[in-house]
Amino acid sequence: xxxxxxxxxxxxxxxxxxxxxxxxxxxxxxxxxxxxxxxxxxxxxxxxxxxxxxxxxxxxxxxxxxxxxxxxxxxxxxxxxxxxxxxxxxxxxxxxxxxxxxxxxxxxxxxxxxxxxxxxxxxxxxxxxxxxxxxxxxxxxxxxxxxxxxxxxxxxxxxxxxxxxxxxxxxxxxxxxxxxxxxxxxxxxxxxxxxxxxxxxxxxxxxxxxxxxxxxxxxxxxxxxxxxxxxxxxxxxxxxxxxxxxxxxxxxxxxxxxxxxxxxxxxxxxxxxxxxxxx
Length: 279
Ligand SMILES: [Zn+2]
Prior knowledge:
Elements: H1 4-27, H2 57-60, H3 74-100, H4 103-130, H5 135-157, H6 171-191, H7 198-238, H8 249-271
Helix pairs in contact: 1-3, 1-4, 3-4, 3-8, 4-8, 5-7, 6-7, 7-8
């Protein structure tokens, strides 16, 4: 069980991302496929199982349909890779928790992490394909984040469950949610940043409410640095720096999961003065 759980978590990412990409493409009419089974957009052939293996099929097929040579959307592979990255980080966190806290606490940590990583991964895949996030799903995510905070605060008040591994339901969760929301809103207002919208503000509120202090700060820096590096690499690849836009939600998701696992460690790394440790 303790060896298996991180491996299962690791596999969930690319498999879920693969399904999410297929769903988002159909939902936004980015593919002609209408059958339950996936089809090639070039020749309409129903794809075989080995053409649908997350992570592996795209490079093995060299990004083309084996029959007609139709180009497969590389964003599908990007989504699967991102699913792997997000859930690799979560799997490391689960592995760490299994070794350091009680079994019950590790299970709660795993369940909460998996649930919100799946929600955020879906929004990441959506953002990757459309540069927007669906309002409906965002609303559900806000509801889930509020529910988690109320539930955890209640359980803590009555000492009803071992919740030490998850930092949800504390007053600082609410405070950080307000600060993160206000901060993102101010950035949008001040910079009139294209491609950033109210969806990103809401997502920042959700993530901060699940991390509290100080992990929200770590999530923000992780997002900022990873998005900047990815944007720069993408600009070099494209050969132009101006007008390059990248979807932000995948990097907010990375920030969330990295801070969920190493929130305090990263904060200490960022703000450590010689000989001091804030946490
Ligand atoms: Zn084809």
